[in-house]
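Consider a concrete sample entry:
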Amino acid sequence: MQEQSQNVIGIVSNCWKVQLDQGHSLIELIDQALTRGFLAIELRQGCLGEFEADFAEAHASETSRRRIADLSKRFPTIDFDLAIGVPFFGGPLLLDSGHFPAGLEAAKCLAHNNSPHLRLVDTSTRSRDPDPNMIDAAIDVLTKMARRLIQEGGNLSIEHAYQSWDVFQFVMTQARQQLGSDADRLRCCFDPCNLLLTELPERIPAIVDSITLAEVSMIHIKQRQQGLIQPVVSDGDLLWPSLLESLTARGHQGPWLFEIAPDANVWSHLEQSRQFVLKSF
């Protein structure tokens, strides 16, 4: 996995849920993002607009695969990744069932230069500290999924959600060790705001300080206040300026992906958020 040569700022497609629900096309929204200088797009399962069925059926439908490939070709300068939900902390999984087969095929169709990037998150398993058998199963399935991506010349990213950071990092570290020389093909989609789901706020700066370039594929940027994700990244429960200073001082260059709360004024909110973040670059 190559490091970014400059800071790349992008968007997670669930920011556009209001617009997608109103019938705006995903193509239109990506085109607007590109015009506004957002060069990375995470296509999130559930917020794929007119392509939702195509991404869900990519493993079984040649027509769907062709439509996804055409979408990618339309935006050759956009850095795409595909994000799906997989309950990898919920016990043993079969790789050929659930969302993974379709996600893998869709990521292959979406990829530029034959380097698919699939991002997984487990939002179903709400145990902060899973039992040892579930942890072992998570290490096993993530290693196998990463190897599937590696066979296709691609990369796997996993995002932390409702598991404690210590458990998540242990699982990721163990899976990377099993991958040996291919360890850098499995990385973390790092989301400091998600740490508020499992960690004491005062611990978050130390966790951010501990993150290394070798572990991270991309960084989500969102803000929370009184338990709610905000439509604009500004002051709130996370002290973003100091967190960004820590990350950039150690060479992190993104992609930095905004994941703000959906809103009718999403474009002005994205620009306000970008200006807030740029002060720290």
About this structure: The mean pLDDT is 95. The chain is about 40% helix and 15% strand. The radius of gyration is 18 Å.
